[in-house]
Design brief:
This protein is α+β, with helices and mostly antiparallel strands and about 600 residues long. It contains 15 helices and 25 strands. It has helices at about 5-15, 135-140, 205-220, 230-245, 275-290, 295-310, 355-365, 375-390, 405-420, 430-445, 465-470, 480-495, 515-530, 535-545, 570-585, and strands at about 25, 30-35, 40-45, 55, 65-70, 75-80, 85-95, 95-105, 110-125, 125-135, 145-150, 150-155, 160-165, 170, 180-185, 190-195, 275, 315, 330, 340, 495, 500, 515, 555-560, 565. β2 and β3 form a beta hairpin. The radius of gyration is 24 Å and the shape is globular.
């Protein structure tokens, strides 16, 4: 680990981080900010998800934008306005109540971040401290050329241009930042608008106009969801997925990098990129509810990648479709228990299952009548890639060593079958026959003598990820291997109502890693397709309880400590919650036809 710089040490001494469950997210699709309970923006990359952070406190680096009561004797809380990522932070002090409404303005622009903060004295007079210190490119560039023009502060940080309105009383401090103390009478409000852009800007920063546009955008992109099993949480899932999805269609896996899945194990990664698999999970989940624009954006992004790279499709890209940068360390101490790094080596792997997930996504789009000619061409190309590469060992869903993973083959079986039903072309019969061939070979190599599917041809252990392709029709829902696999996962990989991926040698569940929330929702889907609706509801409700007070899910959940683990928020967990809620909320859930 790279030793921390003086700036990092200073940041740690001043403000140590919070447990992950306490952070909130505001996002506009092009980037996202994490807000801590003190009212500080702990993390924000600008102008895009994969660019350098300008607020680095989450990893112990410099840069901050804080709004908090002067009275430090307070308790915090807050909530999201329903169906949005508009956050209202709230503090009860010794003498009153203060709130701060905050959002990234939408619809977003790719080269311009606009952060809205509206302070309100809910009860009593409010004294609030405001601090701004933009440090572009992971803290390398302090603010320079600070000046006030017509009541608006302007500055630069590296190549970025900064404007701050609503802080006329702020003054530069010896640390290079801007500082102000605001006094609001009871019932009073005060707006601030922070803009960070790649070019100098002159557009109005009128807060009410920006708030109105943002409210309209969220109302347009998040459906009502009344027919689902958990309407409010489903709207939240839609909000998170919209917040993580760029105008290009690319959805980042999470808003952060280097948050540890397990302390001091080196398992901390950069998730600010678009994984093809995760993108497909989101699109398929939305399709289970209806033809929402998120489905079309997912199809467009995945189709573009398949058409560009064909059988050499990468597992992950930047949201604008570029290859992932190599891994490198940052000069910070990192979040406690983790390292600090950017880039991701997974972009160079071969993961067969992404072709199967892409085929399922394209089939879902065809089912809703939103598969255009270009996407249909990509679907045919993805099927050709499966025919070419399905016998090759791959890194699989969990990005491990190259092996003959069962999950990867079953995903391709589902995708080929779905496509052959939904896209009637001369090749449809060939796709169906290829699915039969892959299933037969996988059955002969990866079906355990006890009748359940095992992880790989050379690994007889159970694997929770297998439940998803099985639930989606790799075999008929009456096939005994589905019930036996689900029972084996419940017996060996579940504890206290939570599901783990697989066993790590002889280590007890929970020691090597946390419960995987994706797997909890797939367990619920598997029970549901078997007609075990009460059991499915139990798995669903238990898994959706594994969030923090902000309602955000990480990848893993530490059951013993009731804490989130890994990067935040994890898009595919919210996607599977959405899918479960949509399917379970139907009065009658029609099972798609399947066959071997």
């Amino acid at each position: 680990m790279t030793p921390p710089t003086d700036d990092a040490a200073t940041a740690i001494g001043a403000d140590s981080p919070w447990v992950l469950r306490d952070y909130a997210l505001i996002a506009d699709g092009e980037r996202g900010a994490l807000i801590d309970p003190r009212g500080g923006i702990a993390w924000l990359c600008a102008p895009a998800w994969h660019d350098g952070a300008v607020f680095n406190g989450l990893l112990g680096g410099p840069g901050r934008f804080g709004v908090r009561p002067t009275d430090r004797w307070n308790v915090w809380g807050g909530y999201y306005e329903d169906g949005t990522l508009i956050r209202v932070s709230r503090w009860v002090t010794a003498d009153g109540i203060v709130s701060c409404r905050e959002a990234l303005a939408a619809p977003a622009e790719t080269g311009r971040v606009v952060l809205l903060r509206q302070i309100r004295a809910v009860r009593g007079t409010a004294l609030v401290d405001v601090d701004l210190d933009v440090r572009a490119d992971y803290g390398q560039h302090p603010m320079t050329r600070m000046r006030q023009e017509n009541g608006t502060w302007r500055a630069c940080s590296g190549s970025l241009h900064i404007r701050l309105s609503g802080a006329e009383a702020a003054r530069p401090g010896p640390d290079g930042g801007l500082h102000a103390r605001l006094r609001l009478p009871e019932g009073g409000t005060h707006d601030m608008v922070l803009e960070i852009a790649t070019q100098p800007q002159h557009a109005s920063l009128a807060p009410q106009s920006l708030w109105n546009a943002t409210e309209r955008w969220w109302k347009r992109v998040v459906p009502e969801c009344s027919g689902t099993a958990a309407p409010r949480d489903t709207r939240m899932a839609y909000a998170v997925l919209n917040g993580l999805t760029s105008a290009t269609g690319g959805m980042v896996a999470a808003a952060t990098t280097s948050l540890p899945e397990r302390a001091d194990t080196g398992r901390d990664y950069d998730y600010r990129y678009a994984w093809v698999r995760d993108q497909c999970y989101a699109g398929i989940a939305v399709a289970a509810h209806g033809p929402h624009p998120l489905l079309e954006r997912a199809v467009r992004f995945v189709a573009d990648r398949v058409l560009e790279d064909g059988a050499a499709l990468r597992p992950a890209y930047t949201v604008d479709g570029k290859p992932l940068p190599p891994e490198r360390d940052l000069p910070f101490v990192g979040y406690p228990g983790g390292n600090d790094r950017t880039g991701n080596r997974a972009g160079r792997q071969f993961q067969l299952d992404v072709f199967g997930e892409a085929l399922q996504l394209f089939a879902a789009a065809a089912r809703h009548g939103v598969l255009d000619t270009r996407a249909a061409e990509a679907a045919a190309l993805a099927a050709e890639a499966v025919a070419e590469r399905w016998t090759q060992p791959d890194a699989g869903l969990w990005e491990l060593e190259n092996r003959w993973w069962t999950h990867s083959r079953l995903c391709c079986v589902v995708g080929l079958r779905d496509l052959s039903r939904e896209l009637r072309t001369p090749a449809s019969a060939d796709w169906s026959h290829l699915a039969d061939r892959i299933l037969a070979d996988t059955r002969s190599r990866c079906l355990h003598p006890d009748g359940h599917w095992q992880r790989a041809d050379d690994d007889t252990g159970p694997e929770a990820a297998l439940l998803l392709p099985l639930a989606r029709g790799a075999v008929p829902h009456t096939d005994p291997s589905l019930a036996r696999t689900r029972s084996e996962v419940a017996r060996r990989l579940a504890q206290d109502g939570y599901v783990y991926r697989f066993r790590h040698g002889d280590e007890p569940l929970g020691d090597a890693e946390g419960a995987f929330l994706l797997c909890g929702f797939t367990m619920a889907l598997a029970a549901h397709v078997q007609g075990l609706h009460t059991e499915a509801a139990r798995w669903f409700e238990r898994t959706r309880s594994a969030c923090g007070p902000t309602g955000l899910f990480a990848e893993e959940y530490d059951v013993a400590q009731r804490q989130l683990r890994g990067n935040l928020p994890q898009g595919f967990v919210h996607a599977l919650l959405l899918e479960c809620s949509a399917r379970f909320g139907r009065a009658t859930d029609a099972v798609p036809p399947t066959g071997c």
